[in-house]
Amino acid sequence: MLSSKAKYAVRAALQVAEAGGGSDWVQVAEIARREAISRKFLEAILVRLRDEGLLESRRGAQGGYRLARPAQDISVADVIRSIDGPLALTPCASRTRYGQCQDCVEVSRCRLQPLMQQARDAVAEVLERCSLATLIAAPGTLSLHA
Amino acid sequence: MLSSKAKYAVRAALQVAEAGGGSDWVQVAEIARREAISRKFLEAILVRLRDEGLLESRRGAQGGYRLARPAQDISVADVIRSIDGPLALTPCASRTRYGQCQDCVEVSRCRLQPLMQQARDAVAEVLERCSLATLIAAPGTLSLHA
DNA sequence: CTGTTTTCCTACTGCTCTGGTAGGAATTAG
DNA sequence: CTAATTCCTACCAGAGCAGTAGGAAAACAG
């Protein structure tokens, strides 16, 4: 399950992407209002997305956030990973942050790992293919390749 | 990420399936030894799998656990869901335990839900297709349809 | 240069979940 | 009856989650 932080993050990223084609600065308070999220809580989320290189920020009056890259170059997977970490079900199946499972005796002989990698590939395929632009463009197109 | 409980559960289920073709009673202590899991901890896991209908148990001397169904009729998804709950990334995308997300304002207009369902379908496809029998049979066959 | 807007940083809190541990009751085989 | 084994209840420490609070730092407007 995703954390609510991650869900908020995707929604917030969509708001940023939509405002002025993603090139205008959008304020936290504005996003918070539109998505009905606590402003303070949202702040922490956006700072994280900025630290991960998905957003840019500017302080002060008329400041705010905007996308660091075009909307079609930011996938939903990027956003989720920035907040919740790897998509994989086990550390040993993660490509972005591979690590050995502590409870696994020997990775090379693990019977689950190949399966876990398949599962990771399957979910990554879906979430990496879908960019913020895709999500904005058409609610209809998504169901097409389902 | 899976809990370590869920990973132990899959390994334990494999041990049960392997012993005597799944029809003999296997003791907790035996599984704990072979998989290097705390016996008491494993007990809780197996009780859960039994409650969910995947295993049968018998108390007393010569007691233990065995599969409630043939190994090819128990999927890895079944085991994982028994311990960790739904595979879906959001409640609103779960088929086995559908529920509305609290933080979601209106489900019918949620822009994430279709995508989350795709992700769920993708991971479920992999984990439901793979049974305990599949995992036991061949480490090689798995990588074939990757 | 002053005030206003807005992000940014640090710290705190209450709650639930995770990963166990402990002790003993109930049941079954021999 | 005795030994083996599951089953039940309770407990515990640490981590993570979902926020909340207060103010410092920066940028712009005038």
Describe this structure in words.
The structure is a homodimer of 146-residue chains. Chain A is mainly alpha-helical and 146 residues long. Chain A folds into two domains: 64 residues, Arc Repressor Mutant, subunit A; 59 residues. Chain A has seven helices and two strands, in the order αααββαααα. Chain A has a two-stranded antiparallel ribbon with strand order 1-2. In chain A, strand 1 and strand 2 form a beta hairpin. The first copy, chain A, starts with a helix and ends with a helix. Chains A and B meet through helix 1, helix 5 and helix 7 of A and helix 1, helix 5 and helix 7 of B. The structure holds a DNA duplex (30 and 30 nucleotides).
Furnish the topology, listing elements before pairings.
The structure is a homodimer of 146-residue chains.
Chain A (H helix, E strand, L loop, with lengths): L3 H15 L9 H8 L3 H13 L3 E4 L5 E4 L8 H9 L28 H17 L2 H6 L1 H6 L2
Chain A binds a DNA duplex (30 and 30 nucleotides) through helix 3.
Keywords:
homodimer, 146 residues, mainly alpha, Arc Repressor Mutant, subunit A, 7 helices, 51% helix, 5% strand, elongated, DNA-binding
Distance between the termini of chain A: 21 Å
Order of helices and strands of chain A: HHHEEHHHH
Instruction: Compute the number of strand runs of chain A.
Output: 2
Task: Tell me the Rg of chain A in angstroms.
Answer: 17 Å
Structural class of chain A: mainly alpha
CATH superfamily of the largest domain in chain A: Winged helix-like DNA-binding domain superfamily/Winged helix DNA-binding domain
CATH class of the largest domain in chain A: Mainly Alpha
- Most extensive interface, chain pair and sizes: A-B, 42 and 42 residues
DSSP helix fraction of chain A: 40-55%
List low-confidence stretches of chain A. none
**Total helical segments of chain A:** 7
The CATH topology of the largest domain in chain A: Arc Repressor Mutant, subunit A
* Proportion of beta-strand residues of chain A: 5-15%
CATH architecture descriptor name of the largest domain in chain A: Orthogonal Bundle
Number of domains of chain A: 2
Mean pLDDT of chain A: 92
